[in-house]
């Protein structure tokens, strides 16, 4: 059985090739499709198991991050996307894609609205962070496992606006959180944006839609690790076997393996 993925691209998308590469390394059949083509041929969604909206600056982040792409999808493809999500098939939004899914209302789902606001630091944050997987349903992460991946965003502060005052964000939808070196709350700079509950990624209630601010597609080979040259032994450059596991690839492999 072949796991088929579509990576949706538009003007300003810049992580589509990395995402395609990550999915292929994980064993999926991956294809990049422009939003204009999908608008004309929405039946292409019938042929896939996973839709990915990757990172970038779609349409130059004009108005706000992800605003133009989400408007385009809402106007052209809302019914097709609603059917896709309702079918239980998988949707993944990374960084700019997370922003798009929130604007479309697919995340966080029932019980309130979410927003991805400017980082509390007031600046673009570009570095590696530590994450811990939560208890969210779906094939995305191994609960409790820690990950080390990069972030690169200016509007990644997840805010939660519940339907009822005082309603907590459901733990069952927390896919992954930022963590510090200790066991306490992450705080800045471990939490690069100030997200509510240190949230780095969430799912919908059903668990088949996930939005993620960090970029797992940028850590799919051991030599992507930022300190890989420090793993020398007696001055000898390390082999891939000596290097840390590429944890971004682990996520993509888990998606493919679990879904199959």
Number of discrete helical segments: 5
Determine the mean pLDDT. Answer: 93
Number of domains: 1
- What is CATH's topology name? Rossmann fold
Radius of gyration: 18 Å
Number of strands: 11
- Beta fraction: 25-35%
Q: The biggest beta sheet, please?
A: 9 strands, mixed
User: How are helices and strands ordered from N to C?
Assistant: EHEHEHEHEEEEEEEH
Which stretches are poorly predicted, pLDDT < 50 over at least 5 residues? none
Strand order of the largest sheet: 2-1-3-4-11-10-9-6-7
State the helical fraction.
10-25%
Q: What is the approximate shape? A: globular
CATH architecture: 3-Layer(aba) Sandwich
Task: Describe, in plain words, how this protein is organized in 3D.
This protein starts with a strand and ends with a helix. It is built from 5 helices and 11 strands, in the order E-H-E-H-E-H-E-H-E-E-E-E-E-E-E-H. It has helices at 16-25, 35-40, 67-86, 96-104, 247-259; strands at 4-9, 29-34, 50-53, 90-94, 112-117, 125-133, 146-153, 157-162, 174-179, 199-203, 209-212. By secondary structure, it is of the alpha/beta class. The radius of gyration is 18 Å and the shape is globular. Helix 3 (67-86) crosses helix 4. 44% of the residues are buried. The longest helix has 20 residues, at 67-86.
Layout of secondary structure:
Elements: E1 4-9, H1 16-25, E2 29-34, H2 35-40, E3 50-53, H3 67-86, E4 90-94, H4 96-104, E5 112-117, E6 125-133, E7 146-153, E8 157-162, E9 174-179, E10 199-203, E11 209-212, H5 247-259
Parallel strand pairs: 1-2, 1-3, 3-4, 4-11
Antiparallel strand pairs: 5-8, 6-7, 6-9, 9-10, 10-11
